[in-house]
Give the backbone structure.
Amino acid sequence: APPARPARLGLCAACHGEDGMARIPGAPNLAGQKRDYLRAALAQYRDGRRDIPMMRAAVGPLTDAELDQLADWFSAQTPAKGAP
Amino acid sequence: APPARPARLGLCAACHGEDGMARIPGAPNLAGQKRDYLRAALAQYRDGRRDIPMMRAAVGPLTDAELDQLADWFSAQTPAKGAP
């Protein structure tokens, strides 16, 4: 079954799209990315190993379960061949 | 015209595949990722803002031009719906 729609998805959608295809320059596509990679990246943004203020602001307050939901959601989306 | 095959591609292929589809757990898919995001991520691995030893070892010695070539190459690949 496809993953449930995360309650926190709105935090991500402005830049990454609900479908995981980037909406702003500089933001990555997340659709179809490897689930464990996404989950590790989210943790690194949260704990600062990835020192990116914008992302620390977005995911700083999120729980592990919320990070799991977001990684499950975006990894399950179908990647499209967007503009490079 | 599709980008030239980067001389340094072999450095990446073991984990990311020449086609940008991850070959090992934990490595991200790079195929079809946003070009500027990839280029920024590579710079962050090189300068340590992304404190990931494995990637610092891989891209530490690379020049800006070599990072450009790799970002051009992988962003031009077609993403496949791999296993999440």
Remarks:
- The CA atoms of residues 25 and 73 of chain B lie 22 Å apart.
